[in-house]
């Protein structure tokens, strides 16, 4: 293993673009190769993004002995197959979220990668942002009392809902729940520090994929959480954490700006309130994600967050999908 992680990328998906600068600037990262199903596409992307080596197949990249780890931004239904193939070649894997389409697949995949002694992490960036760690410490210190409820939203307008878009294709694991609902699901679990026992969801469908979903979670201690996700509302990317003594609002939860603030709202009297803003400026969550993954590889330990988190999130996603399809409350697990 070199002093830096020597990265390869499977695919030339548009989602790669936001990671190119972090791959080139992270202190632990050395982006070495990219693969596409056609060599001209790989060469073109490599030339535009200063990547030294281009391959005309994913298999060729996995056979490269100078690659330590791969980033997999392929469609959801391809995550399991190519993560396993990467593990077979001894490559550590950062795979786009959700890790797999269903929880049972994720559970088996996590076990498979452990059996191959390779590190596996899904590509949620926000857990790696220092704001997230600051807020966790803030809440655990009792700053707003006991957390009683979390409300989360991640929506954006996918104009026209075009069936040619991978997000709109059921066979590819499309739909708003897996695309952006995985964010709200993970965040609710994260801030509640508990797993729901039951969920109820309603959804609208186009081309047999959910394009808008909202719902309610119920926890064993009686607490609740609510969420809203999908492709039919303007961009909303926030989380609200309700405590017994105050409320935390996190704007731009998933894609923070340079200030990365969260707001602390406290009631004063009956209808007045104070609002305090706490910032965590100048941080790049993508760089932190790459560096955190590299630390797990170098230290030969599980990454943080642990890949089992993807399994737990997957169980909630499965239950939400079932609830929305069947129109009833569903137990989780």
Automatic annotation (TrEMBL):
Gene3D superfamilies named in the record: Dihydrodipicolinate Reductase, domain 2, NAD(P)-binding Rossmann-like Domain
Superkingdom of source: Bacteria
Gene Ontology terms for molecular function: nucleotide binding; oxidoreductase activity
The UniProt record lists the keyword Disulfide bond: no
Keyword Oxidoreductase: yes
Pfam families: GFO_IDH_MocA, GFO_IDH_MocA_C3
InterPro entries named in the record: Gfo/Idh/MocA-like_OxRdtase_N, Gfo/Idh/MocA_domain, GFO_IDH_MocA-like_dom, NAD(P)-bd_dom_sf
Gfo/Idh/MocA-like oxidoreductase N-terminal domain residues: 5-123
Keyword annotations from UniProtKB, A to Z: Oxidoreductase
Domain GFO/IDH/MocA-like oxidoreductase positions: 133-248
PANTHER family according to UniProt: OXIDOREDUCTASES, TRANS-1,2-DIHYDROBENZENE-1,2-DIOL DEHYDROGENASE
Family: Belongs to the Gfo/Idh/MocA family.
Protein name: Oxidoreductase, Gfo/Idh/MocA family
């Amino acid at each position: 293993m070199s002093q830096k992680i020597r990265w390869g990328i499977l695919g030339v998906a548009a989602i790669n673009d936001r990671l190119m600068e972090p791959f080139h600037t992270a202190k632990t990262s050395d982006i070495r190769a990219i693969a596409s199903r056609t060599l001209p596409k790989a060469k073109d992307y490599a030339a535009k993004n200063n990547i030294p080596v281009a391959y005309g197949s994913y298999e060729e990249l996995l056979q490269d002995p100078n690659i330590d780890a791969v980033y997999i931004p392929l469609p959801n239904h391809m995550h399991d197959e190519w993560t396993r193939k990467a593990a077979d070649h001894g490559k550590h894997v950062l795979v786009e979220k959700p890790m797999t389409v269903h929880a049972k697949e994720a559970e088996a995949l996590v076990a498979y990668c452990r059996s191959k002694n390779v590190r596996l992490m899904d590509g949620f960036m926000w857990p790696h942002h220092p704001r997230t760690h600051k807020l966790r410490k803030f809440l655990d210190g009792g700053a707003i009392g006991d957390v009683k409820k979390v409300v989360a939203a991640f929506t954006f307008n996918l104009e026209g809902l075009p069936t040619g878009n991978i997000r709109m294709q059921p066979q590819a694991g499309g739909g708003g729940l897996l695309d952006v609902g995985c964010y709200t699901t993970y965040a609710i679990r994260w801030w509640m520090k508990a797993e729901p026992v039951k969920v109820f969801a309603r959804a609208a469908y186009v081309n047999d994929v959910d394009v808008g979903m909202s719902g309610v979670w119920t926890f064993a201690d009686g607490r609740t959480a609510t969420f809203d996700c999908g492709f039919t509302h303007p961009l909303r990317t926030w989380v609200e954490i309700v405590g017994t003594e105050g409320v935390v609002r996190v704007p731009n939860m998933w894609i923070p700006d340079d200030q990365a603030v969260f707001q602390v709202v406290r009631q004063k009297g009956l209808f007045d309130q104070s609002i305090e803003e706490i910032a965590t400026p100048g941080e790049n969550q993508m760089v932190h994600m790459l560096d955190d993954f590299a630390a797990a590889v170098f230290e030969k330990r599980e990454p943080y967050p642990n890949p089992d988190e993807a399994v737990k999130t997957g169980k909630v996603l499965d239950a939400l999908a079932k609830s929305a399809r069947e129109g009833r409350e569903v137990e989780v697990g």
